[in-house]
Amino acid sequence: MAVKPPSSTELLRIATGLGFHFDAEDVEFFRGLLSGALKSYEALDRLPDALPDPRYPRLPGHVPAVADNPFGAYARKIDIAGAASGPLTSRTVAVKDCICVAGVPLMNGSATLEGYTPEIDATVVTRILDAGGRVVAKSANEDFCFSGGSHTNARGPVDNPWKPGHSAGGSSSGSAALVGGGIVDIALGTDQGGSVRQPAALSGIVGMKPTFGLVPCTGNLGMEYSLDHIGPMTRTVADNGLLLGVIAGPDGLDSRQAGVSLDDYSADLDTGAAGLRIGLLAEGFGLPQSDPRVDAAVRTAVERLAGEGAAVAPVSVPMQREAGAIWLPRANEGILATIFQGNGYGYGPKGVYLDSAMQRQAMWRSQADLLADTVKVGMLAGAYMQGAYGGRYYARSQNLARLLAGAYDKALAEVDVLVTPTVPVIAPRHPPAEAGRTAVIATAYGMTINTAPFNVTGHPSVSIPCGWIDGLPVGLMLTGRLWSERLVYRVAAALERRLAADGITGRAARERSLQSGAQRGVPGMASAG
Known about the structure:
By secondary structure, the chain is an alpha/beta fold. Helix content is 36%, strand content 14%. It contains 15 helices and 13 strands. The chain has helices at 8-17, 24-46, 123-130, 173-180, 197-203, 237-247, 292-306, 323-341, 355-361, 373-389, 392-412, 437-444, 453-457, 485-501, 507-519; strands spanning 74-81, 92-96, 134-139, 159-160, 163-167, 186-190, 206-209, 230-234, 277-281, 311-315, 417-421, 461-469, 472-479. The longest helix is centred in the N-terminal third of the chain and has 23 residues, at 24-46.
């Protein structure tokens, strides 16, 4: 197509925005220079697209009616059959709605993207289909993934699969609810500050944030290049390791993937806990927002590994107290630069750029009022800090990340894994409509205090269920050395077995927790589903 050059008025506006003080002669001089330069852009439209082709036939599916949308967790029902055989044969899969599935509309939780349809399958989707998986859902997520709650999707909240009206966690809320509620077998989520692990914890499933770069993000509409992770969400540790083995490894397209180290993630699941060194990370417990019952449940669960031959001891990483401050500039300035100023991709890193997505995302400027307040507050903070301090704090956060990673590495030289609660509380209620905007934002934030540090450093981190409080799940988080997913899964599997054998997890344990809540006078606990 012909590239239209700017009018004199447009060019003067652009020049003024860049700080130039042009008179009419300057405008016409540079307008003439631009007219020639812009002709070169037209050649790009005559060249073929360099995008991966989808391999499996599909239809666009449909948005289900409320009655056919359990927990409000579907963004779209689809049905894409993969290869006839493979490690995921007969497994049904949900894909978070920020991950591209060719020919299937994607909205990333936001009214500003509704109706956009990508042309490619993300690498992880292709790998799942090649492995025999059947993709049956695009799962709802929070508005541009800006929430640890599950109430900001433009179409409505996602309910906890164990208790209606409570949060499923965010931002991979639909994936967690569909897996936790038994609707699909396995799912994909994305994690920039805890968005796989938080909903896994609140919905009672297993969620892994792998080592940074282990899983390619090609075809994911991410948030910030150095924070983005894609991870598996499943009901068991074994299924989690299986799915990670399918999606992990370089794809030759995502330049995050430097020095990737692959392993057989399921090889040690039956090895047990004997000889393992488990570190209870002091800074993850006893926080101002902590529910003491959650802390106690995590400590009690881990102590059971001592009976399996593991050594359990306290560990301290004082710098974790500052980890949230190190993460925040990337979550504000970095995400603003990538999603909004950079139209969903930013500029610079090598990889697959989906030009249709960038062009569509640029339309947010005319629809900004439709964005959730959780998104707006992050954008405002990022824009203010960019303008007032010129990127100083973003730069410092990137540099300090190396010191934080070193602090964890030092602790992990003494133990095999670090243990904390995944989130410091059980699933809160959705904010009621009459609660006001402040409550909506407050319920969305505050979940990332233990999870976000490992997005900064890239260490692998998994949440597993470790008990129940008042009929709602408690999540325990295990974090290991870089590329040590196999060892992390070994610990997780040993703990999963012991907790099940001791009746700490499972439906019977949940019923006991409901009865206990009713005896304490917790409203509605005895009959909640």
